[in-house]
Amino acid sequence: MSERFDSVEHFSLVIIEISSKIPEEGITLEEFLYIIGERGLFMSCMILTAPFLLPVSIPGSSIPFGTAIFLLSIRIGFNSPILIPKRFMNLHISKHDLDLILNEILNILTPLEKVIKPRLNILVESDRIKHFNGAMVSFGAVLLVTPIIAPLGDFLPSYGILFISLGYLEHDGYLVLAGYVTVIATAIYYILIFAIGIKIILIIISYFGLHP
């Protein structure tokens, strides 16, 4: 199946279809990726951001989901098959948690449906820009799994990944551009947090007279 869709309404139908395929006993991350993988790598990345966008927590999901997004986007960016480590792929997710994720991501997509439309084709059409978009999603995934304590630490890069992935799938270059801005702004934000942390540490060291 093509990675592109004719209208945003199709996403609702696809997500409902995915939800209907989740067995009552739950599913592993590998099985979940198998179900959504037929729709394309960008859609897989988009759905995997859901635990970071919502007030829904799947215990132990941050690293495996973030790693999966990173490796899938590397495959997009460099057009090379990369296997996700088995220990991540074996993460078991309950049907309840997955239903929460899929239902809530529909709630996020619904208001976006009103403004998404094909535009700024230069950011969505060529294979070269597809690879660049994959690289930007990879960068966002790196920020997502970076162990930094900061407000909105997971929230910001997740929305960057979501905007780029959804914008590409829907031919909306403006949404892709919003994703670029969000990812770059997150990187700057992390650098500032890191710099402030180093400054505080140096002040504490100086206060206790521990500096050389």
Polypeptide structure, described:
This protein has ten helices and two strands; from the N terminus they run αβαααααβαααα. It is mainly alpha-helical. The chain has one domain.
Give the biggest beta sheet.
2 strands, antiparallel
For the termini, the CA-CA separation is 63 Å
Mean pLDDT: 80
**Main structural class:** mainly alpha
Q: Which spans of ≥5 residues are poorly predicted at pLDDT below 50?
A: 5-9
How are helices and strands ordered from N to C? HEHHHHHEHHHH
* Percentage of residues assigned to helices: 55-70%
Number of strands: 2
The gross shape turns out to be: globular
In spatial order, strands of the major sheet run: 1-2
Q: What radius of gyration results from the CA coordinates?
A: 18 Å
Count of discrete domains: 1
Work out the helix count.
10
Proportion of residues in β-strands: under 5%
Condensed summary:
This protein has helices at residues 9-20, 29-37, 41-48, 50-53, 62-78, 86-89, 95-113, 127-145, 155-169, 173-207; strands at 27-28, 92-93. It is mostly helical.
Q: Features of this protein?
A:
212 residues, globular, mainly alpha, single chain, two-stranded antiparallel ribbon, 10 helices
Outline the fold blueprint.
Layout: H1 9-20, E1 27-28, H2 29-37, H3 41-48, H4 50-53, H5 62-78, H6 86-89, E2 92-93, H7 95-113, H8 127-145, H9 155-169, H10 173-207
Antiparallel strand pairs: 1-2
Helix pairs in contact: 1-7, 3-5, 3-9, 5-8, 8-9, 8-10, 9-10
